[in-house]
Design the sequence.
């Protein structure tokens, strides 16, 4: 069981806006920033959002992140077929370890 | 740009020790970054194993701490993972990754991953 809680699945049609939630506690999300990863089948994860809402160079602005209290969300607007992937949230925990969510499988219908 | 490459045996016997190395190229392991190991069992999610700084300081996942050792070799620009007393539950793809250096868990560069199977 993962420390951060994500829905196991999400779906949307092309062009739609989809959000994925990530719930934690005061020792992780509540006191540290949240990061999001995209993992395409058979590949290493890719950093999508860091520090709650910052996009690394090359990540489209269709991807955005937010955080409130002990929860965070990843939003994907203008959904595209290539966005079909697994998405993970992650944060540092004050017990000096990194924690991940269980992952959300996004299906583009 | 910085690249990471994992290497090590793809098959380890139960009760044995898993040993992997991550070679850093295109940059120095002595930069202001922490370097991590992350694993992913087949069909499952990501699990952080631990991290090391070039000074040798480490942090480990509490659930694995008793079995994990991460070390750094600055002369070879690489860091390593040892996981002892392995069982089938340790079968996974093992990734090494660089932490961006914000407030932790922001891994901006990843190796391609190496599959390790624990089996007799």
Sequence:
């Amino acid at each position: 069981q993962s420390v951060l809680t994500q829905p196991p699945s999400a779906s949307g049609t092309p062009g739609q806006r989809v959000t994925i939630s990530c719930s934690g506690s005061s020792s992780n999300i509540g006191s540290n920033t949240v990061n999001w990863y995209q993992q395409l089948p058979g590949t290493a994860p890719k950093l999508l959002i860091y520090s709650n809402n910052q996009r690394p160079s090359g990540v489209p602005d269709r991807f955005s992140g937010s955080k409130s209290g002990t929860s965070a969300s990843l939003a994907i607007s203008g959904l595209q077929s290539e966005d079909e992937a697994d998405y993970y949230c992650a944060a540092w925990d004050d017990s000096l370890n990194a924690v991940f969510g269980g992952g959300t499988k996004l299906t583009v219908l | 740009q910085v690249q990471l490459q994992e290497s090590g045996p793809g098959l380890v016997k139960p009760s044995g020790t898993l040993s992997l190395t991550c070679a850093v190229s295109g940059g120095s392991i002595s930069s202001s970054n922490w370097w991590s190991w992350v694993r992913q069992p087949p069909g499952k999610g990501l699990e952080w194993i631990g991290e090391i700084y070039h000074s040798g300081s480490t942090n480990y996942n509490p659930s694995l701490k008793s079995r994990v050792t991460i070390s750094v070799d600055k002369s070879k620009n690489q860091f390593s993972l040892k996981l002892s007393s392995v069982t089938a539950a340790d079968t996974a793809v093992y990734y090494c990754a660089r932490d961006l250096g914000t407030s932790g868990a922001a891994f901006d560069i990843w190796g391609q991953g190496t599959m390790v199977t624990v089996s007799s």
Observations:
- Chain A touches chain B at residues 2, 32-33, 35, 37, 44-47, 50-51, 56, 88, 90-92, 95-103 (CB under 8 Å).
- The mean pLDDT of chain A is 97.
